[in-house]
Amino acid sequence: MQVDEGPRPAGSSASKELAEHLVTALPNGALEPVPGGLQNVVGELPGSGPAIVVGAHYDTEAQIPGHVGANDGAAGTAAVIEVARALERELPAGHREVRFVLFDGEEEPAGCPEARFLECALRGSKAYAHAYADEVGDMILLDYVANRGLSIPREANSDPRLWASLREAAARVGAEDRFPAEGDGELAIVDDHIPFVEAGVPSIDLIDFTYEFADTPQDTPDKLDREALDAVGEAVTELVLGLAAEPAE
Ligand SMILES: [Zn+2]
User: Are the beta carbons of 230 and 83 closer than 8 angstroms?
Assistant: First the structure.
């Protein structure tokens, strides 16, 4: 459904139309304005603090004509929605608050060179972290999570302890092969978790940066694997179920 909307750069009418659909798919869904005319799509399952944030971005590349972001944005967004549905059914009584955040403006706007990505991109996550980071205890970000042969080692900015919990959760649902120990911390990626990392929130980014169709018009659903996306969704659901049941530290 997301990819059928065509290219959805931040601020475009296609992006706004998509946001109107996404907001109906999250529990207690709402749109939150982001400076520059953008908007994050948020949802929540209320509970005790500190909150757990599960996020992805829903915009596509403004500077690449025809980019529809099947793996880069849409897959993570779809996973966040399905994780929300599963948690709504499965969270135990007295659970911690879980928030779902679909970030706008992860990609750099037109005219922003790659070297200035941290400065001009990540607009939705910067706004969210600025407003709420002090209420967040854990942040889980899903970016390239559905490509064939999916394999995600820990990204270097991702919290080792939270990553270890993810790997344990993945093992409980039979998805451990997707999160190998090999390659741990070898690659650092600037993504929507960085504003949370900078605010001191333990955060992890699930991203398979070997995806060969990244940032091309060929990033389309035929390059993806439903089983890979399913494995990530199950592992993240299991991780959040464990975190949400723990008493707050
Ligand atoms: Zn992305």
Answer: no
